[in-house]
Design goal:
Low-confidence stretches: 441-479
Order of helices and strands: HHHHHHHHHEEHHHHHHHHHHEEHEEEEH
CATH architecture of the largest domain: Up-down Bundle
Radius of gyration: 30 Å
CATH topology of the largest domain: Amino acid/polyamine transporter I
Largest sheet: 6 strands, antiparallel
Helix content: 55-70%
Mean pLDDT: 85
CATH class of the largest domain: Mainly Alpha
Number of domains: 3
Shape: elongated
Strand content: 5-15%
Number of helices: 21
Strand order of the largest sheet: 3-4-6-7-8-5
Distance between the termini: 49 Å
Length: 620
């Protein structure tokens, strides 16, 4: 029985871990591990592999913690829906570039390196094969089934690795050793700093990883366990491929390394060329390595297709843009147009003889700031759901240019500065005085406010007249003050539901719950700010958002208690949490609302007034 439980617990985690590893073994990880190993030897391989594995593992552990902060299988999906909203364009660009890069790497270092002619015929056909395989597997295996197809592919990879290992043992090593670059100078750190930064934060903008974490949590699979397995497997694949590059150098691969733009040497395709040149004597070794490359590429491309489809469908479902009414939904939600454009970009890049590093620049610079801000917002979430897009785009673009100058002019210091600049800018955005103002868009500052206070404004509270406390309390039989009372941090208002609160069926009408919460909020304001007067106030309190989850019904003549408290606040917003229960203590529902503050003269958003802070702080 224990063995059966262990199988039920760990086998799904093993499947998801394998899918995580294969989906992350994309063009950049697959071929740049060879390039960096050729340049800096085993130390360079470890420099590349360790941050890559740690970044993947850290993503899994943090999302596991986020998923468990609230109960339910949809907790991570709900978090992602809110968290990802300001990053949606960046998510699309990141995924589009990843697909383009992977197809490019397959064409440039897989097909083109073999020298088949005429290339004008074979190159488009090879591209068509890659795109067709990507779309076919992406349509056949959705996110719920992709772990099974990847499980089969994982077995193929394992078999290919074993066969390659046996073949390498028979082939031996040659006497030639390619001279590696030193790792104790600034040129090494010009590469190492961007690699460390880029791969530590890289998974946070990858839709494939978010989709896997969300689906694993839905299936009650431990995200942490899956990513432990995935990170270890991925690290092992990088070590295998990098070590194979060291072996290839001693098989004459050093002579196959070529010089490119800027005087750099490039050897991404060295392993493939070595196996190809010895295919006459060891044909199955060449076949096994081709299987290894093909599987790593395909499991990234089909994952990218599935993730992009999920993203586009979700975006269409959430958007109110009129364009969605003009263009057929199947066109807008299909990833095929984006995939075809990505294929075209890869095709042009291959013809022009570009290198993988040109694509890599964006992952080491432009996307770093967005990923770092995203990580920070996992724990510093505010009701404001905007980011300073223009500023971040400018900083990211500047970082790309600085890095590019450093790379092509061989100024490694500029490469490091280009990668660090987005991190410094994010730290400044979060910590500078008035930082909250950068995270509120113009549309959130009341685009077309009316000049008269509406029902959303907190009610005027005039200084109360003397009240007969005995009458207010309802006599000795009434357990609570009719104006409400505090229980710790909670403000509680109790009352009896009557027939006027019900619908034709006899249970309380759903809209009444929101009205009850609103009334309790007004009494709460009256209690904490008794001197507030709408006629001479310098600010208004507006409701920015309200949500409520219904969990149980109630009927007339039932005693109902509404509890409300301050859940969190920052410089701009206050979030109130509420709970509704009956006389038996059964929770009828719960939810939250967000308040903002505007000037009474021009309706411009302002910081929370000091008067409010001093009144509310003791209840926060």
């Amino acid at each position: 029985m224990d063995l059966l439980n262990l199988k039920k617990r760990w086998f799904p985690a093993l499947l998801w871990g394998n899918s995580v590893a294969l989906s992350w073994m994309w063009g950049l990880g697959l071929f740049f591990s060879v390039q960096f190993t050729i340049q800096f030897g085993l130390f360079g391989l470890l420099t590349f592999a360790i941050p890559n594995g740690i970044g993947l593992l850290a993503f899994g552990l943090i999302t596991h913690h986020i998923a468990r902060r609230e109960g339910g299988s949809e907790s991570l999906a709900k978090f992602f829906a809110t968290w990802s909203r300001p990053f949606r364009l960046v998510f699309f660009l990141y995924q589009f570039l990843a697909i383009s890069l992977t197809i490019f790497a397959f064409l440039r270092y897989g097909w083109q390196s073999l020298g088949f002619e005429p290339w004008i015929l074979y190159l488009p056909l090879t591209l068509l094969i890659a795109l067709a395989a990507m779309i076919l597997f992406g349509e056949e295996f959705d996110i719920r089934r992709i772990k099974y197809s990847h499980g089969v592919f994982g077995l193929l990879v394992a078999a290919a690795i074993i066969w390659i290992g046996l073949s390498v043992g028979r082939m031996g090593t040659g006497p030639f050793e390619f001279p590696k670059l030193p790792t104790n100078d600034i040129y090494y750190w010009g590469y190492a700093v961007p690699i460390i930064i880029g791969f530590l934060v890289g998974p946070w903008l990858d839709l494939q990883q978010w989709q896997r974490a969300i689906q694993a949590h839905r299936e009650r699979v431990s995200i942490a366990a899956a990513y432990w397995i995935g990170a270890i497997e991925f690290f092992g694949l990088l070590l295998f491929h990098g070590s194979l590059a060291l072996w290839a150098l001693n098989q004459g691969g050093g002579r196959l390394v070529r010089e490119g733009l800027g005087g750099y040497t490039y050897g991404h395709e060295t392993i493939l060329k070595v196996f190809y040149h010895q295919a006459g004597a060891y044909p199955w070794a060449f076949v096994a390595y081709c299987v290894f490359l093909a599987v790593c590429m395909l499991t990234t491309l089909d994952s990218g297709y599935v993730a992009l489809k999920w993203f586009l469908q979700d975006s269409a479902a959430r958007s109110n843009n009129p364009i969605f009414a003009l263009i057929p939904s199947k066109v807008l939600t299909s990833p095929i147009p984006a995939v075809l454009v990505a294929g075209f970009v890869a095709f042009v890049g291959t013809i022009l003889g570009l290198e993988l590093e040109y694509f890599m620049i964006f992952y080491a610079t432009f996307f770093v700031g967005y990923a770092a801000l995203g990580i920070a917002r996992c724990y510093v979430m505010t009701p404001a759901n905007a980011i300073p897009q223009v500023k971040m785009f400018c900083v990211g673009s500047l970082a790309v240019v600085i890095f590019a100058y450093g790379y092509f002019l061989r100024y490694p210091l500029f490469m490091g500065v280009g990668s660090l600049l987005p991190l410094v800018s994010i730290a400044w955005l979060l910590l500078k005085p008035g930082a909250g103002e950068d995270f509120v868009s113009d549309s959130e500052q009341l685009e077309a406010p009316v000049r008269e206070p509406t029902a959303a404004v907190a009610p005027a509270v005039v200084p109360p007249a003397p009240v007969d406390e005995a009458a207010v309390s309802g006599g000795v039989e009434s357990p609570h003050n009719l104006r409400g009372h505090f229980e710790g941090k909670w403000f509680v208002h109790s009352f009896v539901a009557t027939y006027a609160d019900t619908n034709s069926v006899g249970n309380v009408y759903f809209g009444m719950y929101a009205m009850w919460v609103g009334k309790t909020r007004e009494l709460f304001f009256n209690h904490v700010m008794p001197r507030f007067n709408l006629k001479n106030t310098t600010y208004y309190i507006l409701t920015r958002s309200f949500e409520h989850k219904f969990t149980r019904e109630t009927r007339e003549f039932e005693t109902v208690s509404v509890r409300i408290r301050i859940a969190e606040y920052n410089r701009k917003f206050v979030t109130l949490q509420h709970e509704i229960s009956d006389s038996q203590g059964h929770r009828l529902g719960h939810g939250k609302q967000t308040l903002l503050y505007v000037s009474s003269s021009d309706y411009k958003m302002i910081d929370i007034p000091q008067e409010v802070i001093s009144s509310f702080i003791q209840y926060a």
